[in-house]
Design brief:
With 186 residues, the protein is mainly alpha-helical. It has 6 helices and 5 strands, in the order αααααββββαβ. Strand 2 and strand 3 form a beta hairpin. The chain is globular, with a radius of gyration of 20 Å.
Length: 186
């Protein structure tokens, strides 16, 4: 999408699409960057003119973007749950949402398996010890592309991360990103 054609109405259009549809809607891959650039341009305009309508427009876009983000997060959680139950392949995920989706789906699968194993009589203590060991292991990776903030399996928020940046992540998250060709082991 060409940033010169981004307007307040563009943001509202994407908000309406997310609101009116149960599925994630296709957004340009650089949508969040375009939003940031739009806000920076408007802030510069406000600094020069002190026009309060520009400030209101910025505040309104921030509310619209928050609504879009929250709607997409809810859909992402639902998609991850459906994926675990039926291997549904998600569509229209933003690059930053893909890693979050993979992590959530992976954790849901682990939880699902643990409960079923417990019901079947598999030792939960040995499973917990194994999971604790894997969660305590961290691996350094070099990012192959930018990545928006995401929550790791250790509960910490990582990012934003730029291409070429080295970061230490829980081993399972690092392996997931390497497998998705988003990062390379260091």
């Amino acid at each position: 999408m060409n940033e010169s054609i981004i307007t307040y109405e563009t943001f509202r259009k994407f908000q309406r699409q997310e609101k009116d549809n149960d599925a994630l809607q296709k957004l340009p891959d650089d949508f969040y960057s375009l939003c940031r650039e739009w806000i920076q341009r408007k802030e510069a305009m406000y600094t020069n003119t002190k026009d309060p309508s520009i400030l209101r427009e910025i505040e309104n876009v921030m509310l619209v973007m928050k609504d879009i983000l929250e709607r997409r997060e809810r859909k992402l959680l639902t998609l991850a749950l459906h994926n675990v139950r039926g291997n549904i392949i998600p569509q229209n995920l933003m690059p930053s949402e893909r890693s979050t989706f993979d992590i959530i789906a992976s954790q849901l699968e682990k939880s699902h398996k643990a409960v079923l194993d417990m019901i079947k009589g598999v030792s939960a203590a040995s499973q917990e010890m194994q999971e604790a060991r894997s969660q305590a292991t961290y691996t350094k990776v070099s990012m192959l592309g930018p990545l928006e903030p995401f929550m790791g399996t250790d509960g910490k928020v990582y990012g934003p991360v730029n291409a070429g940046q080295t970061i230490e992540l829980p081993a399972d998250v690092a392996q997931l990103l390497v497998g998705k060709k988003v990062a390379a082991l260091v």
